[in-house]
Amino acid sequence: MAETPSREWMRSVLGPLMPVYREVIVSSLFVNLLALAVPVFTSQVYDRVISTA
Questions:
Q1: Would you say the pTM of this structure is higher than 0.90?
Q2: Which among 39, 41, 46, 52 has the fewest CB atoms less than 10 Å away?
Q3: In this structure, is residue 38 part of a structural domain?
């Protein structure tokens, strides 16, 4: 199937930016994992300290 003209211009504009998009996605994933890890770590420390007190 041939691509429609409306998609060809978009691919030609966004194609060179794909490495940048990949970098942004990986960075975003890393930051979001850190955002989830901090509360889990804090709750683990809190549970261990409060249970021994």
A1: no
A2: 52
A3: yes
